[in-house]
Write a structure and sequence with these properties.
It is a single chain. The protein is α/β, with parallel strands linked by helices. The protein has one domain: Alpha/Beta hydrolase fold, catalytic domain (Rossmann fold). Helix content is 47%, strand content 16%. The protein is built from twelve helices and eight strands. Strand 5, helix 3 and strand 6 form a beta-alpha-beta unit. Helix 2 packs across helix 3 and helix 5 packs antiparallel against helix 7. The chain starts with a strand and ends with a helix. The protein binds D-malate.
């Protein structure tokens, strides 16, 4: 079922009386990246996935986004749907939103699952890369940028063995509004560093990372997981940055095991 909440496209699956899980996708993707997890978990959980403002089916408006406005959107969805301490699940940019939300209001969540993400903010090199990406979109349009970006996200195994699915992620991104894509880049570029809060997190945490993730590799994610008390850290085989799409079997196993213990 689809609902529109303050302009955002929100997709609901499963029984609303069950424990809820809220899924936040990465950049430049949309909520469909969680389909394999939702197909499995909707039997036992109320699954809420939404398209971040400016991506997928959520309109870009003026594109003036910040990580704070993305967190406001998340909070608004939780309040509007009256979700009682949902489990928060985010990948990469979805993880940035999730980490900042936990830093701001951890007591609204019962557990966290973060895939292929990081707590530190963009350094100088990262900021310059975002600026170059915005310049490229302004001169060439969105397609060449998202094609290169998405190609770098996926590992070789998926690109070679799941060509159609890989190409579909690229073609889906071509319909994204350049204003929204640039808005996400600006929000990520300006986000705060949430590293300090990691050791204060009290709720159960599962941290997932693709073994060949080129953007947020295990060398970045393992130390991040070690800063969170009792966090579980799982490395996903044959996977790059998009582990829930690239190896849904292993990601689903890790999630199911973690959720059963809650
Ligand atoms: C994502 O997958 O959301 C992006 O790679 C995050 C980023 O560019 O920092």
């Amino acid at each position: 079922m689809k609902e529109t909440i303050n302009g955002l496209s929100v997709f609901l699956e499963g029984n609303s009386k069950n424990k809820s899980i809220i899924f936040i996708h990465g950049f430049p993707y949309d909520s469909t990246m969680w389909q394999s997890q939702i197909n499995l978990l909707k039997e036992e959980y109320f699954c809420v996935a939404y398209d971040i403002r400016g991506l997928g089916k959520s309109p870009a408006d003026n594109g003036q986004f910040t990580m704070e406005s993305f967190v406001d959107d998340l909070e608004m969805i939780i309040n509007q749907l009256k979700l009682d301490k949902p489990i928060l699940c985010g990948l990469s940019m979805g993880g940035y939103i999730g980490l900042r939300a936990v830093e701001k209001f951890e007591n609204k969540f019962s557990a966290i699952i973060f895939c292929d993400t990081r707590a530190d903010a963009d350094g100088n090199e990262g900021k310059l890369k975002r600026a170059a990406a915005i310049k490229r979109i302004n001169t060439e349009g969105v397609a060449p940028f998202t094609k290169d970006f998405i190609t770098n996200c996926f590992g070789d195994y998926f690109k070679q063995n799941y060509k159609v699915e890989f190409e579909k992620r690229i073609s889906d991104s071509l319909s994204f509004d350049p204003v929204g894509v640039k808005g996400s880049l600006l929000a990520m570029m300006g986000r705060n560093d949430t590293t300090e809060y990691l050791s204060k997190i009290k709720i159960p945490a599962l941290i997932i990372c693709g073994e060949f993730d080129a953007l947020t590799p295990p060398a970045v994610m393992k130390p991040m997981a070690e800063k969170i008390n009792n966090a579980e850290f799982v490395v996903i085989k044959n996977s790059g940055h998009m582990s829930p799409i690239e190896n849904p079997k292993e990601v689903n196993e890790a999630m199911t095991k973690f959720l059963l213990k809650l």
